[in-house]
């Protein structure tokens, strides 16, 4: 894995939907990367975000579950494109799955009833920050990634396969690996339309 600055990672990060295995990427390296991601901030420091890392055979199993569930809802005549897209995720090194711990959210609502209605929104902000931090760390390491949302379609099968606590609610998946496609060109709004300097 290579490294780049955080500024470069922010500017160069793109959705890479076709990845392949990088033989130099190890589970230990990914664990170290995720140990940095968990420092992402959350409202009230509630830390309701949860992650699960699957690699190698477990990654293939995950994307087989996605394929199996999609076959039930995608018309057969349209499935070739879906199958090709899923191969782009399955062929990578692994996937980080993101969850929110509903037990933590309920505890926060009880601890701070004045803000009870806000914790759901705050948890989505928190998981967004956690996902972005993880994505930037993957980009910083020279790996390709994208954010996918095959939940709730796969929730039950994933929970059963990996014994996920019932309080964990699946939010997103980030498949990662060596980049196997060029990032698409991206247009940005003019800075002055987005940021107001006083």
Mind summarizing the main beta sheet?
Answer: 5 strands, antiparallel
- SSE arrangement, N to C: HEHEHHEHHEHEH
Architecture (CATH level 2) name: 3-Layer(aba) Sandwich
Overall, the morphology is globular
Q: Give the number of DSSP strands.
A: 5
Measured as a percent range, the helix fraction is: 40-55%
CATH superfamily: NADH Oxidase
On the 0-100 scale, what is the average pLDDT? 96
GO biological process, one term: cellular response to oxidative stress
Main location: cytoplasm
GO molecular function: oxidoreductase activity
Subcellular location: Cytoplasm
What features would you describe in this structure?
The chain is of the alpha+beta class and 198 residues long. It has one domain: NADH Oxidase (3-Layer(aba) Sandwich). The chain is 45% helix and 16% strand. It is built from eight helices and five strands; from the N terminus they run H-E-H-E-H-H-E-H-H-E-H-E-H. Strands 1, 2, 3, 4 and 5 form a five-stranded antiparallel β-sheet that branches. Helix 1 (6-12) packs across helix 6 (119-140).
Task: Pick out its properties.
45% helix; alpha+beta; globular; Frm2/Hbn1; oxidoreductase; 8 helices; cytoplasm; 198 residues; Nitroreductase family protein; NADH Oxidase
Topology:
Elements: H1 6-12, E1 19-20, H2 27-37, E2 49-55, H3 57-71, H4 79-90, E3 94-101, H5 102-111, H6 119-140, E4 144-145, H7 155-162, E5 168-179, H8 191-194
Antiparallel strand pairs: 1-5, 2-3, 3-5, 4-5
Helix pairs in contact: 1-6, 2-6, 3-4
Give me a quick take on this structure.
With 198 residues, the chain is of the alpha+beta class. It has helices at 6-12, 27-37, 57-71, 79-90, 102-111, 119-140, 155-162, 191-194; strands spanning 19-20, 49-55, 94-101, 144-145, 168-179.
């Amino acid at each position: 894995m290579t490294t780049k600055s955080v500024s470069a990672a922010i500017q160069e990060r793109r959705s890479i939907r076709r990845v392949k295995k990088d033989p130099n990427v190890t589970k230990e390296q990914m664990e170290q990367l995720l140990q940095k991601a968990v420092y992402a901030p959350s409202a009230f420091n509630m830390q309701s975000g949860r992650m699960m890392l699957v690699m190698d055979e477990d990654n293939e199993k995950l994307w087989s579950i996605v394929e199996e569930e999609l076959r039930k809802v995608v018309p057969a005549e349209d499935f070739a494109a879906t199958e090709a897209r899923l191969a782009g995720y399955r062929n990578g090194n692994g996937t980080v799955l993101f969850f929110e711990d509903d037990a933590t959210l309920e505890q926060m609502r009880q601890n701070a009833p004045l803000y009870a209605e806000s914790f759901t929104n705050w948890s989505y902000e928190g998981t967004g920050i956690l996902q972005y931090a993880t994505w930037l760390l993957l980009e910083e390491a020279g790996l390709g990634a994208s954010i996918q949302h095959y939940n709730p379609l796969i929730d039950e099968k994933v929970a059963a396969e990996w014994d996920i606590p019932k309080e964990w609610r699946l939010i997103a998946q980030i498949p990662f690996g060596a980049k196997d496609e060029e990032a698409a060109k991206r247009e940005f709004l003019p800075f002055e339309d987005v940021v107001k300097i006083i």
